[in-house]
Amino acid sequence: MASTIRVRATASGDTTEVQALIQHPMDSGFVKNAKGELIPPHFIQQVVIEHGGKPVFIADWGPAVSKDPYLKFAFKGGKKGDDLKISWTDNKGASDTLTAKIQ
Amino acid sequence: MRRFSGVAIAGLAVAVALLGAPFAMAADTPNPPADLKAFQKYFKDKFPKVKFEDFVNGPYSMDEGLYKQWKEKEEFPPYEFALDFGKELMAKPFKNGKTLADCFPNKGIGIRQDYPHFDAKQGKVITLELAVNQCREANGEQPYSYVKDEMAAVTAYMAYTSRGKVFDVKIPDDPRALAAYENGKRYFYTRRGQLNFSCATCHVQSPGERIRAEVLAPALGILNAMPIYRSEWSGMGTTSRRFTSCNSQVRAVPLKPQDEEYRDLEYYLSYVSNGLPISGPGARP
Description:
CATH topology of chain B: Cytochrome Bc1 Complex, Chain D, domain 2
Oligomer: heterodimer
Distance between the termini of chain A: 25 Å
Largest sheet of chain B: 3 strands, mixed
CATH class of chain A: Mainly Beta
CATH architecture of chain A: Sandwich
């Protein structure tokens, strides 16, 4: 199975721009399926992005975030070739991690 | 009195001559190449600033703000996961060891522009979606749902590998093919539903204008971008999904996906977009 995470990080000058797409159903727990049963909540609770072992971005997400969420941010201090580690954990305890190189 | 009647008769003759012209045209035999020319000219004249190849980008070709947002989105397109999934499904062996790729020329790579086509043996229009499920059924597998998920992923992958190739839909010299084309054309221009809209009401008469918050896409090139990731659906959808949901939106009862009329409609719409490149899978608001 391919990773649930896609990352693209590009450094220009002293800032690094990071874009990420995460594959996740992000079920809020309020939606019913075709049979009228509630779809149990299943959403990402935390996303952490680390650069050189230090978190540069932490997001606490909830059920209001859309399916397959996309995020974009920039931070200072990244260099071309550095490792960027992105990981998420959801309310069911599942998680995924990916390490990408800054371009 | 005699003079008056003479004038009246002359007047009548003029009226007959005027009415006669459109009647004579309507009675003409179907002429797809002329339809194509007129169809494309209509859009070129209506949107002189839009580059011809840009019509495949639907609402983005019509609205500058949307175009900018889309360009940014395309750097990280929402259909990426579907592409990977589609590639996987194409290569995944069936129970009999064959794969979906085996059913298609060139293993399904770069062939999107040849669909739909008229199959003389089956005597009907074969769309890409129908071909995928015919392949699955012929190999003893369950067909995919026509509207989303696996079908959208497979067709997205096939469209992606065909990007830039121009639509090349042919109407063979077969009265059944011509009848299918005419049927699709009729469906396209027929009003239906509580709102009494035809496909053309929105996509020929009003592209570029808004229907609620959405910018309407031009019918020219609209299928080149299929399947699409729609933010509204928060997922992928096929041509079948687009047709059925369009019908529901005008409060008509949609047909079954891949119904004969829908296939004929796809045949007509694809034919009049001949010459435009495949741009699918697309991302739409």
